[in-house]
Amino acid sequence: MSTSGGRRPARSGGWGARGMRHAARALLVVALAAVVAACGSGTQQNSGGGGDSSGGKTTLALKHISGTDQTALAPLISAFEKQNPNIKINASFAPTDDLQTSLRAQLGGGNAPDIFVVWPGNGSAMAVQQLAPTGVLADLSDQGWVKQVPQNLKPLLGDKGKTYLWSPGMTPIGAIYNKKVFKEAGVDKLPTSWPELLAAADKIKAAGKIPFAVGNQTPWVTQLIPYAIAPSTAFTQDPNLAQDMLDGKKTFSNSGWRTVYERYLELEKKGYFNPSPNGTTFEQQQAMVAQGKAAMAVQVSAVAPPITDAAKNSKDIGLFPFPANDAGTDLKIPAGLGAGYGVSANSKHPAEAKKFIAFLAQPENAATYAKENIQLPLTGGDNADINPLLTPFVPFVKSGKTVPFMDQQWPNPKVQPAHFAGVQELAAGDTDINGLLKKLDDAYQQK
Amino acid sequence: MSTTAPPREVAGAAAAAGTARRRRRSGPVGAPAIWFAVPAMAIYAFIVLYPSLAGAFYAFTDWTGIGSFKWVGLENFKSLFSDEQSLGALRNTILLTVFIVIVQNAVGLALAIGVHTRIKSRYVLRTIFFAPAVLSSIVIAFLWKYMFNPQPDAGINALLGFFGLDFLQQNWLGDPSVALWAIGLTVVWQFAGYSMVIFLAALQGIPKELEEAAAIDGAGRYARFRHIVLPLIAPAMTINLTLSTIGGLKLFDQVFAITGGGPGYSTETLSTLIYKQAFVFGQYGYSTAVALVLAILVSALALVQMRYLQSREVTY
Amino acid sequence: MLGRRYRPQTFGLELLMIGVGLLFLYPIYVLVNLSFKNPQEISEASLSLPSTLETSNYSQAWSGASLGAAMVNSTIITALSLVALIAVGSFASYYLARAKSRLSYGMYILFLLGIILPFQLALVPLYKVMKDTGLLGSYASMILFYTGLQMPFTIFLYTGFLRALPREYGEAALVDGATHLQSFTRITFPLLRPITGTVIILNAVFVWNDFVTPLVYLGGTPNETIPVVVYQFVGQYVSNWGYIFAAVVLASLPILVVFLLLQRYVIKGFASGLKG
């Protein structure tokens, strides 16, 4: 059917007086809506970006990750605001991925919060060594607490000799285990070497339980067992491995990393993993240990409390260092610095922001924070009150037998995701060790 | 408000004042003024068009998302076409989209027909079918990951076992050949009710008299459906097919939240690739280039599909 | 189905549809079930009902996330965005559907482009614009954002249905001397009630659940919307899923109620409008 006005061009559209009246009416409606919207904007707050000063009060914007960091930070914010009545902190928390997206958008838009989460070392898009060169972080090298940081860890808090972030502490990776399952399987002593670990796993398997609950469906879980094996193997063969790789002297294929994956596959081939590890999620992994279906889960220390909460008897759950060392050699554990706090270089209130970080870095506060976060405090002083779960790990830190999370010393953000996917493929048998090592090297070489 | 009164009154008022007007507009009525569309275009241009254009600029740079950048011309596009990960992602994207378009709309249509009847529970049922669309993707992802437990005594596998369907039990998210379809299933569950709502709006516009007349003339249920209902809901079909095609090609939240692209790269789609490039690898410029290519692909497809579908619509 | 009577086959269909409904309901049953469980029972992952109703999940979710304030924020932003979308979008669709010219078709395609364009393209430039105009952190920024963002989708729905709407009603008025404005607002628009109801519910769900943009624009202010406050319960290692599910159930109720109410309104309005 022919359309109306089809034969008449533009004229029929009414650009004359009537058209103007229509336009006026339409625009009035829109304008009214806009006015209503703007008036009804509640309190006009300057979100995310630098805070403002009004009536002598300074407002700082802070963005960090949700979870235990949030619960650890909240009381400290209140205490700080009490001590400093002229400073108010507007804190916002979100899960890691979404936080990363929103922060990078804000950084790209030139409107970063005064204080925001920064990860130590390198290897991810929000790591200090990726951010610092772009000039978005304020230099914290002159702050008093920097002297409290152990020398071997200081480089991870900054770039090229300068310090840009404060981290609450070190998170070790260990074996969270169900004491009841161990007892029923006849494992009376915690294993302290690789052969002892295999023997214990054998007993557990014979008792009809799963030795290791593995939740590879959740990508970041895949790296944990390799991270737990590497310090006592690859990094014992070559204690300087991370730097050697950065210098090009060693590669994944040409180093002790091979041993790491050989041991990983050894565990899998002996049937010590749950069936379908690639289909099992992080939450299901926790449930298996909590319910006593599995004996151990190689995890970060922060995961021990939720498993404890979920267990029928909270006393059943414990944590011990994962022994990947050959009998008679030293056990080394992976312990990484946790996500920390940096100050925006464009902050309108750098002094106040730095003051808050200095407040967090004070020994009592740092210790309180780390305790909640199941970390070993960084600037907690020598007599810090440590979360009892971490007692087995303290000697390792004191004697320097720790290795940072390896991704924090990888040169670009592509290696870690390649590692996640690669371990999933390895566990499924879709690739072999050579294939995995090559993929890691390829990612490592990229810009 | 009755819709029959106004024309006569308006006509009466207009007649006195407007005989000249009537004569100027010869033939049937003119089209509405372009001013009707100006406010929409203005807001849309301000919020979407201008920023997208500005953002598209970065496809020709090496911007990481922060700090300074250099112009690199077509470098990003060249790397894109030689990257084998992109090809795998493209394949997954297309497979997933085809699955979603067919299954979601078939189920949505069936549901719409089912609730567009006299059954007593139709209002409650409509709410039940639509309810999944109300939940956010992160929650849905968690719920379905919970149900996709690979153990035979948990989640969906337990349900299948209960009905004696043991052979259907799967390693839903761990098996690379199953994971993509598992995601598809989740999306269909989430949005079948969405499609249903749009189909329902169209079904409600079909005058009952038409169907009754046809029935009186002896047309069976299937014939009535094929020759009366289907053509008259063509606009809804166009809308649903177009939206689900575009939505499927762009699907991100569910894939990222359920598998993150794994196991391995077996569920990586173009959208997850774009996201990872921008926010995980810090290669915003390259990511924008991929996004632009995806947009062009989707536009071409959607345009062709829409022209075809609209030519089959009954318009007045 | 034909006929006004409830026949045996209708009952058969009823049973079938209820069966399908139960299947659809299953995951939601899991959601609500878990929202009343404590961490131990959530970990057990059994399908049975909770042994004790953990209503503390709900009270904690409400107070811990300041859900009440967030609901007010979400409601205001959603409602005002919808008003703007319907008012501005329906008018534009009327032009696009009725004016058959190259210009109108070109405009239509331009709008459709918005459905296709990926979100990332505009993210940073738009954020800069919002920052520069000082709108960040206010309701206005979100309302403007959603009105612009959902305009293509709204126009797509309206135009699609307008095309199929018989022109006779509106044209009769025009021939009798009414302006397009009068014809549209008094005759055509009321006939679009089913689609307006659809536009309302589909856009409302999107705006209500949108997470990333409110996080970026409103994070840290008192104007945070529901998703922003709820996801604070989701941590990397530790998430209290009982709280999260309770919060999700609470947050979903308003939208579901709106949907239920809209059903009857839409049908009632249409049925009475077409008579005569």
Draw up the topology in text.
The complex is a heterotrimer of chains A (447), B (316) and C (276).
Chain A (H helix, E strand, L loop, with lengths): L16 H23 L13 E2 L2 E9 L2 H16 L3 E8 L1 H13 L6 E4 L9 H4 L26 E2 L2 E2 L1 E2 L2 E10 H7 L8 H13 L3 E3 L11 H6 L4 H4 L3 H6 L10 H13 L12 H9 L3 E7 L3 H7 L6 E4 L12 E5 L2 E4 L6 H12 L1 H10 L3 E2 L16 H5 L3 E2 L11 H14 L4 H13 L2
Parallel strand pairs in A: 2-3, 2-4, 9-10, 12-15
Antiparallel strand pairs in A: 1-2, 4-13, 5-6, 7-13, 8-10, 8-11, 8-12, 8-14
Helix pairs in contact in A: 2-14, 5-6, 11-12, 16-17
Chain B lengths: L4 H20 L13 H19 L18 H7 L2 H32 L6 H13 L2 H11 L7 H8 L13 H28 L4 H9 L4 H12 L1 H17 L2 H6 L11 H11 L3 H28 L5
Helix pairs in contact in B: 4-5, 4-8, 4-11, 5-8, 8-11, 9-10, 11-14, 13-14
Chain C lengths: L7 H28 L3 H6 L11 H9 L2 H32 L3 H15 L2 H14 L6 H26 L3 H8 L4 H12 L1 H17 L2 H7 L7 H5 L10 H34 L2
Q: Mind telling me the CATH superfamily name of chain B? A: MetI-like
The total of beta strands of chain B comes to 0
> Number of helical runs of chain C?
13
The CATH C-level name of chain C is: Mainly Alpha
How would you characterize this protein structure?
The complex is a heterotrimer of chains A (447), B (316) and C (276). With 447 residues, chain A is of the alpha/beta class. Helix content of chain A is 39%, strand content 15%. Chain A has two domains: 56-168 and 338-403, 3-Layer(aba) Sandwich (D-Maltodextrin-Binding Protein, domain 2), CATH 3.40.190; 173-236 and 252-335, 3-Layer(aba) Sandwich (D-Maltodextrin-Binding Protein, domain 2). Chain A has helices at residues 17-39, 68-83, 96-108, 128-131, 179-185, 194-206, 224-229, 234-237, 241-246, 257-269, 282-290, 304-310, 350-361, 363-372, 394-398, 415-428, 433-445; strands at residues 53-54, 57-65, 87-94, 115-118, 158-159, 162-163, 165-166, 169-178, 210-212, 294-300, 317-320, 333-337, 340-343, 376-377, 402-403. In chain A, the strands form three sheets. In chain A, strands 8, 9, 10, 11, 12, 14 and 15 form a seven-stranded mixed beta sheet that branches. In chain A, helix 11 (282-290) crosses helix 12 (304-310) and helix 16 packs antiparallel against helix 17. The longest helix of chain A is centred in the N-terminal third of the chain and has 23 residues, at 17-39. Chain A starts with 16 loop residues before the first helix and ends with a helix. The relative contact order of chain A is 0.15. Chain B is mainly alpha-helical and 316 residues long. Chain B is 70% helix and 0% strand. In chain B, helix 9 (208-216) packs antiparallel against helix 10 (221-232), helix 11 (234-250) runs antiparallel to helix 14 (284-311) and helix 13 packs antiparallel against helix 14 (284-311). The longest helix of chain B has 32 residues, at 84-115. The radius of gyration of chain B is 25 Å and the shape is flat. Chain C has 276 residues and is mainly α. Chain C is built from 13 helices and no strands. Classes of the chains: A alpha/beta (447), B mainly alpha (316), C mainly alpha (276). Chains in contact: A-B, A-C, B-C. Chains B and C meet through helix 1, helix 2, helix 4, helix 5 and helix 6 of B and helix 1, helix 4, helix 5, helix 6 and helix 7 of C.
